[in-house]
Specification:
Blueprint (H helix, E strand, L loop, with lengths): L1 H71 L9 H96 L6 H45 L4
Helix pairs in contact: 1-2
Length: 232
């Protein structure tokens, strides 16, 4: 019926949507696993490089402190070396600035990467929960539809079986109760049978008439003989 076909079509569509959603869930799980792996690698690299950068920066700072203190001491012995010393200090200050800038950028990059990972992870968790709930509801609906279709088909088969039995019984009643038109051959055969029956009846009647006549003659002869007596 139309209702059964509609329910079957809806069940098929739901199962297709379930398959699509499950495929999306699998892709989401893989993407999250890859993101987690990448984040772990980035974090490990950061945790390895940060101490090295900090140690380098501290080394430069210490060198600058020593040089500055050295050239700051009173005495003419340093005057000849003040030119080259100033150049070295200036170079170390550039290195210190580069280390400081690099360390700051490294910290900002790590913080941004971690924040982005956490945001994406939360979004993935929400999407995953939503899709899993959708799959659960669609699976339940499809199962209910399949059950309803099976029950409806069973009911329809039962009704069709009962209807078939009723029609078969009605056909038998019609065959017994409703007169069927005779064919020419059937009518001719019936007339021949009726004529044969009439002829047979006529022959029987004619035979009985002959017997009655003979019996009457015999009784008449006997009566005549009795009247004449033995002397006649």
């Amino acid at each position: 019926s139309t209702q059964i076909d509609s329910m079957s079509a809806r069940s098929v569509k739901l199962k297709e949507e379930i398959a699509t959603t499950q495929a999306a869930l699998s892709a989401l799980t893989r993407a999250q696993a890859e993101a987690t792996k990448l984040r772990a690698e980035e974090k490990a690299e950061y945790e390895k490089n940060k101490p090295e950068m900090e140690a380098g920066l501290q080394g430069v700072k210490l060198a600058l402190k020593v040089l500055r203190e050295y050239y700051a001491q009173e005495g003419k012995g340093h005057s000849a070396a003040e030119g080259p010393g100033t150049g070295i200090i200036g170079l170390l200050e550039v290195v210190e600035s580069d280390f400081t800038k690099g360390l700051a950028e490294m910290n900002v990059a790590e913080s941004a990467a971690q924040s982005e990972y956490e945001t994406d992870t939360r979004a993935n968790e929400i999407e995953k929960a939503s899709k899993e709930t959708a799959v659960k509801h669609m699976t339940k609906e499809a199962a209910n539809l399949d059950k309803s279709v099976a029950e409806a088909r069973s009911d329809r088969e039962g009704v069709e079986s009962e209807l078939s039995a009723i029609l078969e019984y009605k056909a038998k009643l019609d065959e017994m109760c409703i007169a069927k038109p005779e064919t020419y051959g059937e009518r001719a055969a019936r007339r021949d049978a009726e004529i044969a029956g009439l002829k047979e009846a006529l022959q029987i009647l004619e035979g009985e008439a002959v017997l009655l006549q003979r019996s009457s003659r015999l009784r008449g002869a006997r009566g005549h003989a009795a009247v004449l007596g033995p002397d006649a």
